[in-house]
Amino acid sequence: MKKLLLLTLSLLFTATIATAQEFAMTDGSFVTCSGGFY
């Protein structure tokens, strides 16, 4: 059960990163905000 939760969380995290990168392409200010995150 814990493994399933972990998998779901990692998938969600990956999806969030992918979406954030798409936003970063259109919005330059977002890149500077998230620069420290990566």
Q: What percent of residues adopt helix (DSSP H or I)? A: over 70%
Our estimate of the beta-strand percent is under 5%
Instruction: Calculate the terminal CA-CA distance, rounded to whole Å.
Output: 30 Å
Major sheet characteristics: none
Total strands: the figure is 0
Question: pLDDT average, as an integer?
Answer: 74
Rg computed from alpha carbons, rounded to a whole number of angstroms: 13 Å
Content-based structural category: mainly alpha
Number of domains: 1
If helices are DSSP runs of H or I spanning 4 or more residues, what is the number of helices?
A: 2
Low-confidence stretches: none
Describe the structure.
With 38 residues, the chain is an all-alpha fold. The protein has one domain (1-32). It contains two helices and no strands. The radius of gyration is 13 Å and the shape is rod-shaped. The model has no long low-confidence stretch (mean pLDDT 74).
How is this structure best summarized?
The protein has 38 residues and is mostly helical. It has two helices and no strands.
